[in-house]
Amino acid sequence: MDEQRTPVVGGHFELSTPRDDGLCDDTTPVVQPPPPTHALKYRPDIDGLRCLAVVPVVLFHAYPTSVPGGFIGVDVFFVISGFLISGILFKEVQQRKFTYANFYSRRIRRIFPALILVLTFTLVAGCFWYLEDALVSMADTLAAGVVFGANIQVLLLKQTYFSASVKEDPLLHLWSLGVEEQFYIFWPLFVAIVAKFPYRAALAAQLVVLVGSFAFNIAFLGYDGNNNWSFYFPLSRFWQMAVGGLLAFLNLQHGTPLVRNVAISTLAAVAGLALVVVGYAVITESMAFPGWWSMLPTLGAGLLIVSGPDTFVHRHLLALRPAVFVGQISYALYLWHWPLLVYAKARFPNAELRPWVQEPYMMMVFSVAASVATLYCVENHVRRRQHKLVVPVLVGCMLALGAVALAVHHDPYHFSVLAQPKAAVTGPVLVPVATHTNGSAAEVPNMSKPPMFEAPTLQKILAAKNDYQADGPEFHTIDAGSVYIPTSENMILN
């Protein structure tokens, strides 16, 4: 396919090629396929649809009550992903140009650069700001994310997507990348097979995958006491990408737009937009999601794709330059926003004491700035590099991050700055007798390895003050030798 001119900020144009998935772009041009297959041309409204998907996700994570169903934006991404990647796959298979090496090389070039940058930042920041348990949890998700298995790792925790403990994981959002990449392990092979079928047989095969996956989605609702299997398990989500794949198949067979009647296509576009927006407004955490409710964003996104790109909804809403620009940075924005929000709240959990620079709205501003810098300074730069070592280097960096994450899991004490001992002292140590039931001075244990202590909280300090505010505890001097002793409310150093 010929390169398309894509509008960018400032009113200028640059040459670009079609994008290959919901969150990510592809830069490999594909030549015009032979008739009767039609080429997938660049559609700015698809970038606008990305904007419609990512903005509610960010708003929901920053201010959950502002967009109660904002988390379903990921479902919209799944449909976009299936549409764009499947379109490229079907064309390459038909042209007999498809290879797994080429397919995954493009995926690595597009996905890894921004992901490596965000994972590195998250890991380093976690070592400075997290204690042992939280650091281990983050490292576990990072290690799973390196092999695109974060959704399985979170699933095994038996915590729902909305659990407070899970929301403290700055890499929780990697679950969606895991679902996508697991889908694209088998989907290229499936496309290579069905592309050789007659039209109706190929259509039927795709419908079997779609309906079967949706059935898993419904069957897993409430399994094991929650909806985790329906939410995180890949087989329960594949149908959403299969919807996009089916639309790509039909688009290549019949051309764009699939619906050529202006009135019908406009009605379909309005209905699709309404389904997505209503989903954002009415779907909440308490509902059995995905389940039947996931049809709102999935069918809505599908209708917006199939009815485009010439209706007023596409030309005057989705194809607006600001929407297109946000869509272009949507992958980086999705990666950056969640760690920044989580770390800001972790450092200042009390909103009344939180400085304005770490408020959620500022984290959103920083996320956009980081996303723009990532797109132009990292992603575009790597995509332009055609050196054969680019892919091996990217894979090596990802594996190195995974190795560091495993090391953090094995010995978090040496990586957490906050978990380091507060002081190393020699000489007598005063221990309050009141803390011991036998009324005698405590024996200092022989600690071959310094222990880890949580930072004292205001509640603990006030409680300690109440315990000792009367006459004060009686202290006995003991010879501690040379030991590590933490500074806390119930231990005083002489």
Automatic annotation (TrEMBL):
Stretches assigned to the Acyltransferase domain: 45-374
PANTHER family named in the record: ACETYLTRANSFERASE, ACYL_TRANSF_3 DOMAIN-CONTAINING PROTEIN
Classification via Pfam families: Acyl_transf_3
Membrane-traversing stretches: 70-90, 111-131, 137-157, 203-223, 229-250, 262-283, 289-306, 318-340, 360-378, 390-408
InterPro entries: Acyl_transf_3_dom, Acyltransferase_3
Keyword Membrane attached: yes
Protein's name according to its UniProt entry: Acyltransferase 3
GO molecular function term, any single one: acyltransferase activity, transferring groups other than amino-acyl groups
Source organism superkingdom: Eukaryota
Chaperone keyword on record: no
One biological process term in Gene Ontology: polysaccharide biosynthetic process
Gene Ontology cellular component annotations, sorted alphabetically: membrane
UniProt keywords, alphabetically: Acyltransferase, Membrane, Transferase, Transmembrane, Transmembrane helix
